[in-house]
């Protein structure tokens, strides 16, 4: 029983790895489950045993590198005021550094941001991705909406606008660096860019 479970997990990982490589090389829209099965050395039935469809497979691939929101929410809840924003700032910087240090993360985010067209076949994956993005924005908004933080927001900046600004900056940094890593140093330049964003949103930023 244990051996069977281990074999099944190996097959699942092989399918995810094959999908990751083919999505990167061919694009998501031009990669079929048949392509993935052949590349992984398994039957198409084995792919369907582990994944309902291509949208489900794509979603599970993204989940390998997504920031778990529940543990993040717990970390942020443990601090208050500008300390929670400092933690959020540090996580943003860490996320950019991980693009340099983690090859798998770099490949998968390249697929998401540069090799994916959300066709009808991927509608379910698109909806799940949008849900994840909105949950992250909501989590950021909660930090900017703290009673100890709101008085520091610049005039005209609401918690919702602040959270969307931060998210837009992150997506822009990810996309630009993946397009051309020579545009800026993801490890040494990111702190200054993230801090400039927070200084634009807040009257006071350490």
TrEMBL record:
Cleaved signal peptide residues: none
A Pfam family matched in the record: TetR_N
DNA-binding region in chain numbering: 32-51
GO molecular function, one term: transcription cis-regulatory region binding
InterPro entries hit by this protein: DNA-bd_HTH_TetR-type_CS, Homeodomain-like_sf, HTH-type_TetR-like_transc_reg, HTH_TetR, Tet_transcr_reg_TetR-rel_C_sf, Tscrpt_reg_MAATS_C
Keyword vocabulary terms for this entry: DNA-binding, Repressor, Transcription, Transcription regulation
Domain HTH tetR-type: 9-69
Protein name according to UniProt: TetR family transcriptional regulator
Organism: Ectopseudomonas composti
């Amino acid at each position: 029983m244990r051996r069977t479970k281990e074999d099944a997990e190996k097959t699942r990982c092989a399918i995810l790895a094959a999908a990751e490589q083919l999505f990167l090389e061919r694009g998501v829209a031009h990669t079929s489950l048949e392509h993935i099965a052949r590349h992984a050395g398994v039957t198409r039935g084995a792919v369907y045993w582990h994944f309902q469809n291509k949208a489900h497979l794509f979603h599970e691939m993204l989940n390998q590198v997504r920031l778990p929101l529940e543990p993040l929410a717990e970390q942020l809840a443990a601090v208050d005021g500008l300390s929670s924003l400092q933690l959020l700032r540090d996580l943003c910087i860490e996320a950019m550094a991980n693009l340099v240090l983690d090859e798998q993360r770099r490949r998968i985010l390249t697929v998401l941001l540069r090799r994916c067209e959300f066709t009808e076949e991927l509608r379910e994956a698109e909806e799940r991705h949008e849900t994840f993005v909105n949950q992250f924005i909501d989590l950021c908004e909660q930090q900017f909406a703290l009673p100890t933080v709101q008085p520091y927001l610049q005039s005209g900046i609401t918690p919702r606008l602040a959270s969307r600004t931060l998210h837009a900056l992150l997506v822009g940094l990810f996309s630009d660096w993946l397009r051309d890593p020579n545009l800026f140093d993801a490890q040494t330049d990111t702190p200054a860019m993230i801090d400039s964003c927070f200084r634009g949103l807040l009257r006071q930023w350490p």
